[in-house]
Amino acid sequence: MANNKKTTIHDIAQKLNVTASTVSRALNENPRISENTRKAVLKAAKELNYEPNQIASALRSGRTQLIGMLVPNINRAFFSSIIRGVEEVANSLDYRVIVSQSSEIFENEESAVKAFLNVRVDGIIASIGKNTENFDHYKQVLDRGLPLVLFDRTTADLQTSQVVIDDYQGGYLATSHLIAQGCTRIAHFTMERKIDIYKERYRGYTNALLDHNIKPDENLLFSGNLQLEDGREHTLALLQKNQEFDAIFSASDYAAMGAMQVLKEKGLKIPDDVALVGFLNEPFTSFTDPPLTSVNQFPIEMGHTAANLFFDALHAGKKKVVPKKTVLQPELIVRASSLKEKH
Amino acid sequence: MANNKKTTIHDIAQKLNVTASTVSRALNENPRISENTRKAVLKAAKELNYEPNQIASALRSGRTQLIGMLVPNINRAFFSSIIRGVEEVANSLDYRVIVSQSSEIFENEESAVKAFLNVRVDGIIASIGKNTENFDHYKQVLDRGLPLVLFDRTTADLQTSQVVIDDYQGGYLATSHLIAQGCTRIAHFTMERKIDIYKERYRGYTNALLDHNIKPDENLLFSGNLQLEDGREHTLALLQKNQEFDAIFSASDYAAMGAMQVLKEKGLKIPDDVALVGFLNEPFTSFTDPPLTSVNQFPIEMGHTAANLFFDALHAGKKKVVPKKTVLQPELIVRASSLKEKH
DNA sequence: ATTATTTATGCAATCGATTGCACAAACAAA
DNA sequence: TTTGTTTGTGCAATCGATTGCATAAATAAT
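YS: structure for the whole thing
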């Protein structure tokens, strides 16, 4: 049973007294092959335990059925969920996903893209690193006529399809919700970056305030890295400056978590003294005490969308289509950290 | 600048009036090539902006520099961290990782392995699905002489390298710690599966009790799916049965989280009334209130180890080496949920 | 100076499938 | 019957790099 040599289309051809071309066409459902030979080929293929060599196929056809996927960090819930989403769609279409991470390091990003091109992936789905300002490696992808889809962290410098969530709307939803809970002095934790996402969340926050006739107060605005420690520091600063505040909207769940810790340490009640809203809907948000209200970005859906955009571009082929930009609507997941008793 | 046609070794060869063989050898640092031509080739390659076509190389050489990696779920912290670990080692050696998930469905596992073989990966690193009992697809991998490394969820049915953590030791550490905190009535949440890992944790639990002259009590043992809801149910059952207990060691953080919720709802103090220890060290464990003591499995290290075992097997080549089994030692991360004041 | 060895390169087959073009056979139209 | 189409296969080149074997040139040994 253990055929040591893998069987090729030539073996099938020989067995049936036809040529490899015929076998190849039969296997690829080419309409020019008669029903009889097609069946015979399929039967022989099964008997000989034939498995196609995708490498050989790829070399000749130029199609590897591989997608290169680049994320900043594989083991961040948001990104791993997006990978999952992409993988689901890709596998169902018999494509495979090669994953690399940049770890937010520009050189890694460059070399990963180069490696993808060397293995001749059929295209790339990527999220740009935080510190990336040069996009030549991505332009090479486009120059080769390969599909490139950017997600979450994108740039206007590249004319290509992208999928993002409506960060503005996320910020607006979160802030409006806090206002609806009766909060008027709402602090905001943000990050200053090239990336637009934080600016958008901030803009949503500001506009929500203005729409409800609340004047934004610079004293309530804090900029940092949005890690847990940053959240702690911002909150301590708020308390020490003796700033009056009754809510915090953090552009990241981690910083919100830091705030929660400090507030509890200081004996403040959440949400009654200070209501709290984060962003990302990290898995841990439902396990904190109180559970943390947050903005869901639907990462798996985002992965599906990215994959679909990818295949749209792939099937469009050479006829350059107008790049599509899909904006997903976020959802505010209200939990106890911001839900006050009726007032 | 935009060379539309990619340059090949033939272009380089032509430019230098040598043959493609020479160019190939020069690029692969074959010692039979003179220093001069090597340099000339390298220079010309750079000038012509040459990028190797790995597909062509793979077809001829039989080496794709691709590793197929199969996990139950990409977006589980434990697995995504292992992927990260594998990826770090692989990329540093110029290998790429193709990721697929089985979602614990046997058919997916089978077809993923088959797909890996079709793209001619150089080997596979995998964690077996919960319900997998037939290992023929993995045997095919071994039959082809390809390296196969199993991690975390393995089986004795396959003669191949594997890396696991010492689940027994994890269970023993956790339980001993609770005993050291003065607990004597320690409940255990486990799961009944083909997989050994839960049995081992349970065995560690039992032996730790026995070693401290505590008689295991069947009334304190609960079996389920170890999800949050299971933890809630088990805890409610404990309370309703009016079982005396002063600690819970759950084989999963999620079930431990369920226990924490119920205990708090019932007004019990953690750890003073009931001390709590989980397993996995999920990211959320440091964010609960109180933070949850848990057993760290070092997933990134596990990924590194799996990758190293993979490359060991790969370099060993045909000369079948004895499969290695690496057992990583887990670490108990003590947090407030189990740390009592001095007593 | 002649033979033996080493060094550097070329030749041509090969990996396994795909595909444009040619062509024979079968069938339809006139 | 003759010409025109359609249908089903074969031929042979091709994708781009690798590699066993042969060989010319350079060097060492006798």
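YS: worth flagging: The radius of gyration of chain B is 26 Å.
IM: good catch. Also Residues 299-316 of chain B form the longest helix (18 residues).
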